[in-house]
Amino acid sequence: MLTAYCAPDGHLQPSGSPEFSSALWIDLFAPSKEEEQQVEAALNIAVPTREEMREVESSSALYREGRGTFVTVRAVIRDPNMQPRLASLTLILVHNTLVTLRYADPVAFQQFVTRTQKPNATFESAASAMMCLLETIVDRDADLLEEVGDGLDPISLEIFSQNAGAMKTIAAADLGRVLKKIGQSGDLASRVRESLHSIGRSVPFLEVDGMPPELAARLKTLGGDVKSLLEHDNFLQTQIQFLLDSNLGLISIQQNAIMKTLAAATVIFLPPTLIGSIYGMNFEKMPELHWHFGYVYALALMVSSAIGSLLYFRAKRWL
């Protein structure tokens, strides 16, 4: 789908027909081959293929060709019932036209479109629109990191609760569910990190001589935001790893407690089993074979041996 936006008074407005000569922004969303050729012929550029957009090396993500500047960044996508993933967005700045090439519709891009439609949103140039899009992606990444941080707090409380009753509940809880939550937070944080890295690499690439002071200041601020968010992401990754290790430790303790209980039960019922095996024999010369109270005696001996073993374990604090 091809959509052209014009800005006659600084406000982006969708154009009824793709008039590339006056378009400030051209959005290519999963374009057909004909639409790609139409843009290439009008702007004299080579639109990268979908495979080229996925390449991660800097020479493929950031380059200049002719009069066009090509920047490929990653934005986080969270489809319903799916793990977070990254979508590649290629931004092409040629003459005074911004071309966006994408095959997905991340929330950050939707927020950018919403921004462009606000009455106070003005764009004097295509570079200003590109800067606004990069800032929107960074804002979205910041929101996702905030969501990750907020999600770790209840997990931490659930694992490290100081209440004795709550700890008993944790010991019997499904720690696999907690482990899944930690894994989801770590996956989302790592995706955001990749997105921030892609934008962070583009900041020095976009710094060129003759850039308007306002855009230069915004670009510098953008670089500072990316750096601070990466540091926050590092902190969250450390916290996630700590919670992961702690949860695995609790799972190990829980498994050891189960094995300890099974081992204790085995030892406790070993003497009664031995007594039952001895008095279950029916040899002809067995002295107790004809005891009148032999059955009651054997039962009492088995019960007392089991109780004695249990009391001994409790005295040693093994149970």
What does this structure look like?
By secondary structure, the chain is of the alpha+beta class. It has 2 domains: 2-258, CorA soluble domain-like (Beta Polymerase, domain 2, 2-Layer Sandwich), CATH 3.30.460.20; 269-315, no CATH class. It contains 10 helices and 7 strands. It has helices at residues 33-43, 50-53, 58-61, 107-116, 126-159, 164-172, 175-206, 213-268, 270-279, 294-315, and strands spanning 2-6, 13-14, 23-29, 62-65, 68-77, 85-94, 97-102. A 7-stranded mixed β-sheet has the order 2-1-3-7-6-5-4, sandwiched between helices. 26% of the residues are buried. Residues 162-169 have low confidence and may be disordered.
What structural category arises from helix and sheet content?
A: alpha+beta
Tell me the strand order in the biggest sheet.
Answer: 2-1-3-7-6-5-4
Query: How many separate structural domains?
Result: 2
Question: What is the string of helix and strand elements?
Answer: EEEHHHEEEEHHHHHHH
Sheet-strand content, in percent, reads: 5-15%
| Biggest sheet record | 7 strands, mixed
Overall 3D geometry?
Answer: rod-shaped
Q: Which oligomeric state applies?
A: single chain
CATH level 4 superfamily of the largest domain: CorA soluble domain-like
Number of extended strands: 7
pLDDT < 50 stretches: 162-169
Distance between the termini: 69 Å
Annotated CATH architecture of the largest domain = 2-Layer Sandwich
CATH class of the largest domain: Alpha Beta
Rg, Cα atoms, Å? 34 Å
